[in-house]
Amino acid sequence: MTISAWLYFFGEVPSHTRASLTTALEQANLTLHPFTSQPHSFGVVVFDRMDDANLRELRVMTRSATVLAISTSLAGLDSAKMWAVLEAGAADLLLWSKLHTATDQVVSRLQRWDALQNLIESTPVKGTLIGKSPLWRNLVRSVVEVAAFTQASVLVTGETGTGKELIAHLIHDLDRRTNKGDLIVVDCTTLSPELSGSELFGHERGAFTGAVTARDGAFSLADGGTLFLDEVGELSLPLQAQLLRAVQEHKYKRVGGNTWQHTEFRLICATNRNMEADVANGSFRADLYYRIAGCRCRTPSLRERRDDILLLVSHFLGQMDPQAATFDLDPAVREYLLTRDYPGNIRDLCQTVKRIWHRHIGPGPITIGDVPMEERQCGISCRSSWPDQGFEGAIRHAVDLGIGLKEISQNAADLAMQVALEQEGDNLQRAAHRLGVTDRALQMRRASRRAIH
Length: 453
Hints:
With 453 residues, the chain is α/β, with parallel strands linked by helices. It has helices at residues 15-27, 52-61, 79-87, 99-120, 123-126, 134-149, 164-174, 196-201, 218-221, 237-249, 275-281, 286-292, 309-320, 331-339, 345-359, 376-381, 389-400, 405-423, 428-435, 439-452; strands at 3-9, 30-34, 41-47, 65-71, 92-95, 154-158, 183-187, 226-230, 251-253, 260-262, 266-271, 295-299.
């Protein structure tokens, strides 16, 4: 299978190294093409020395591409610098020492990432996990990789309303087991102490008053499939001990029974609790925690991914009326949705969009009059919430790193230009209008950045 990727050399990589590396990759059936100022898909960056300027450039590249970094020299590449390369967005870092081995490593990674990207671009994923923000893209990538290429148990953490159950369903859907069974969902907050054992393990006839027939529990129903324990942090300690045996030994006993039953299922757990704190204070068993957390992913709150709000708005409108997904939003409505607080996260946003839609009249656009009366005071006051804590935190981090005002301003302007162009489908005129500059000024700035790269 031929994989296509762009190739970029940082700094003063010797010409003979460039030539040998390029030839080796091409002979490994990679199609290489030149780097552009708007990188996409897969890329390979090569360096013999990684300094702060290169790290900042790498960070820009990885916003829209999956990048593999290759170091041709160990000089000056300590552990801190290696971690810095990953922090800048590189998916992995290889040391180009043995030519044949390194080439195989490059090819195997790009092949996996290509398969992963095809899944990410598939309808089941794109139609379920909506968003393009870097934080969300990283989560989607991790979830899809764990779901399709491993059988590991998964612990999904995050605030209420951030999409934990959607992720559990997607993991089950992407699971590649043959003859896969059903997804069985258990809401741990609804398990009463008296009946929790029966719900999970099932019971024999006569096990307790009212047990007139034998009944299968969640462990039996999930055999061959997936068991999703929602709000697993609410389980009592005695029930945690019984769950541990089932997860660890793949067997259990029904309530009132003496026979060990065998079960094989993939376990997905979700919680909005701080599990590490619960383990530390003894309210959750440490041995069970490490069993259920084979892989961990955290769903970000909506305040951490405000770039995705308008995409989610279009998605929710489209769910109510397919034509409404393309409706324009008046500037005041757009600003209101972007700056409003969402304590309930995505679920809160969804309900807000529904309330607006129920008031909407005609084919579009969504106008300020569609905003419900009780929401309008929020619309008036929300504009003052910027600069917000996220912006202040980013600036504070840059100052802590010793980055000067000129460079902070330059990077902020470049990022604003990139975001505006992305949101307006690369339409220069609309992006310039959003930024409050002329078309000519934006065009010249973009051209100057391309020239630098």
